[in-house]
């Protein structure tokens, strides 16, 4: 019985910081796709040409990323701090948090209200650039995969649509994280630094990493991130497109 409890406790440790991450992702997904769609439609205007337009896609995606960064920054700060506290040499037992709310309250008490937004610049850069890369890749892959079916009188089946959504969303996720992972690495270091005077400039952090470990150090965790990026973003795109169909929203 004790061994079962110990196993459960170890498995639960793998999900430290999951709650704020789930909450942040819920707001991120709803806001990001909604702001992107509305802004792109506003910039494109009334048009019957469904070919991707970078002048509408890139600023719309970057704007969506900039907005959601203000929600993601506090939730990811709590998530990152909850995750690193499982190791004694990083966070002593006396300084550990009992939960996400306790982490947020102690951060505000120690560093003030601005403390909860530590890493905000890095988050803003990651989300703006990442969303621009993601939606650009998604739109172009989707367009060219649909291209052979343009002259077909019948609409593609739901299975084909879902397949295109999986490929375009998955490749978009890979492209996104390949572009912004170094910024995310810097953000994590900034948010989990024990020293309150640690620099919050992501470029200085990356410069320090590059001097110590080269380009490889800036891409720490690329493998697991890519493995996660494809299914996660594929699922997000398929869900988004399915929701639009159910709600009767016409995709321009």
TrEMBL record:
Record-linked PROSITE patterns: SOLCAR
Keywords assigned by UniProt, alphabetized: Membrane, Mitochondrion, Repeat, Transmembrane, Transmembrane helix, Transport
Origin: domain of life: Eukaryota
Entry's transmembrane regions: 12-36, 56-73
Repeat region (Solcar), residues: 52-144, 160-246
Record carries keyword Aminoacyl-tRNA synthetase: no
Membrane topology reported for the UniProt record: Multi-pass membrane protein
Pfam families registered for this protein in UniProt: Mito_carr
Subcellular location field: Mitochondrion membrane
InterPro entries: MCP_dom_sf (IPR023395), MCP_transmembrane (IPR018108), Mitochondrial_Carrier (IPR050567)
One of the GO biological process terms: mitochondrial L-ornithine transmembrane transport
GO CC annotation: mitochondrial membrane
Keyword Ribonucleoprotein: no
SUPFAM superfamilies: Mitochondrial carrier
A molecular function (GO) term: L-ornithine transmembrane transporter activity
PANTHER family documented for this protein: MITOCHONDRIAL ARGININE TRANSPORTER BAC1, MITOCHONDRIAL BASIC AMINO ACIDS TRANSPORTER-RELATED
Similarity field: Belongs to the mitochondrial carrier (TC 2.A.29) family.
Name by which UniProt lists this protein: Mitochondrial carnitine-acylcarnitine carrier protein
């Amino acid at each position: 019985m004790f061994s079962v409890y110990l196993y459960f406790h170890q498995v639960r440790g793998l999900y430290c910081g999951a709650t704020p991450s789930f909450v942040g992702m819920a707001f991120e997904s709803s806001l990001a796709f909604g702001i992107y769609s509305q802004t792109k439609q506003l910039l494109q205007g009334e048009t019957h040409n469904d070919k991707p337009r970078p002048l509408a896609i890139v600023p719309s995606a970057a704007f969506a990323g900039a907005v959601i960064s203000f929600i993601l920054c506090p939730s990811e700060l709590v998530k990152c701090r909850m995750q690193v506290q499982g190791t004694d040499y990083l966070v002593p037992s006396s300084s550990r948090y009992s939960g996400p709310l306790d982490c947020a309250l102690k951060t505000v008490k120690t560093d003030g209200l601005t403390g909860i937004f530590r890493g905000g610049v890095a988050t803003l850069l990651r989300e703006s650039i990442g969303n621009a890369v993601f939606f650009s890749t998604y739109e172009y892959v989707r367009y060219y995969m649909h291209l052979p079916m343009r002259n077909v009188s019948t609409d593609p089946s739901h299975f084909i649509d879902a397949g295109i959504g999986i490929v375009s969303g998955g490749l978009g996720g890979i492209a996104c994280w390949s572009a912004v992972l170094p910024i995310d690495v810097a953000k994590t270091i900034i948010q989990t630094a024990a020293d309150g005077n640690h620099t919050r400039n992501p470029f200085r952090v990356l410069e320090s990493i590059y001097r110590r470990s080269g380009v490889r150090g800036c891409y720490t965790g690329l493998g697991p991130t890519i493995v996660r990026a494809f299914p996660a973003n594929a699922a997000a795109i398929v869900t988004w497109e399915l929701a639009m169909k159910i709600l009767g929203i016409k995709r321009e």
